[in-house]
Design a protein that fits this description.
The structure is a single chain. By secondary structure, this protein is an alpha/beta fold. It has a domain at 134-162 and 174-307: 2-Layer Sandwich (Nucleotidyltransferase, domain 5). Helices cover 38% and strands 16% of the residues. A hairpin with a 2-residue loop joins β1 (56-62) and β2. The longest helix is centred in the N-terminal third of the chain and has 24 residues, at 18-41.
Length: 316
């Protein structure tokens, strides 16, 4: 449809009666549901979610989606079986909710955009972010930057607090590595591959358990001058460039400016939520990694596939 025809069509919407509005809304709902169904039909399961076998055959359809039968265990499945979105209703609104995730709107704003209850929007956010929360780089190579950032510990949603409540919130009694904050270690290499790890506390053992499985033994680790990184490098034999906290922070090709810039973007993006419950912090970190991975090109279709666990851009 060209722009002139579309503008004329929009102008004519003012003339619709209430019953015609209802019919139009129903057709839009059907179109959205069909688009989501076509997307899932184009990405069928490649393995049985019950026994992990690879031999699946078409076996009719149910609830608008093709079903597949495993020739090994005999059980059936569809594109949603075993995914975080299994048994989730109202597929006609999924792509709109995916767009709300891309826009980074609040729960109430997403509920209005998708015409759902705010409690439903909250549950959907948990389900849509379950897969991105665990999708991150498993191996970082070359020059690897690492730095820690801190988030205020939040017990949002809990009925019983183990501490006196913060009347205004937003500020803890301690700063940095104190008990009121949760440390998050952000690791990134020069290719853009990235991982972040929520630490129990910032000490040598936690740093080692976070870095050792992820940093290639031949990599060069760039960090600030904190002693925990020096201890890790000595214990593992990984080359280490410790940059001073004060003074020049660039030594040739060695610096931590990429990871610091990401920390800044992450913190600025998080402010819109006015505090994230610590037990769900991993989902918000995965959400931000998802946005970073696509570099402004994330579409609702891509977001829905990511929520299903189908990754189309390499993990970074």
């Amino acid at each position: 449809m060209d722009k002139r025809t579309f503008a004329f069509w929009l102008k004519e919407l003012e003339q619709l009666s209430p019953s015609q509005w209802e019919q139009l809304h129903a057709r839009v709902e059907q179109a959205d549901a069909a688009a989501a169904d076509r997307l899932m039909e184009a990405h069928p399961p490649t393995r049985c979610p019950h026994c992990d076998a690879v031999h699946l055959i078409r076996w009719g359809s149910a609830h608008g989606l093709p079903r597949y039968r495993c020739t090994t265990c005999g059980r059936t499945c569809n594109a949603l079986t075993g995914t975080p979105l299994a048994r989730l209703r109202q597929r006609s609104r999924w792509l709109r909710f995916a767009q709300a995730l891309i826009d980074g709107v609040t729960i109430r704003q997403a509920a209005v955009q998708c015409a759902i209850h705010r409690n439903t929007a909250l549950r959907w956010r948990r389900r849509f972010l379950a897969a991105p929360a665990v999708q991150q780089a498993s191996q970082l190579q070359g020059i690897v930057e690492a730095d820690e950032t801190f988030f205020l510990k939040s017990l949002k949603g809990q009925r019983h607090l183990p501490r006196p409540p913060r009347k205004r919130g937003g500020v803890g009694r301690t700063r940095g590595a104190g008990p009121d904050h949760v440390p998050v270690l952000v690791i990134r290499d020069r290719s853009g591959a990235m991982a972040d790890v929520i630490l129990g506390k910032l000490d040598a053992s936690q740093i080692r358990s976070a870095l050792q499985p992820r940093v290639d033994p031949d990599a060069v680790l760039c960090t600030d001058g904190a002693s925990v990184y020096t201890a890790f490098a000595k214990a593992t034999g990984i080359a280490h460039e410790a940059l001073p906290i004060r003074g020049p922070r660039v030594r040739g090709a060695f610096h931590i400016q990429h990871v610091n810039a990401y920390d800044s973007r992450l913190k600025n993006w998080m402010r819109r939520f006015h505090g994230v419950a610590t037990r769900y912090l991993d989902q918000y970190l995965g959400w931000r990694r998802l946005l970073e991975r696509y570099h402004q090109s994330l579409t609702p279709q891509d977001c829905l596939l990511e929520a299903l666990g189908n990754q189309h851009v390499a993990v970074t």
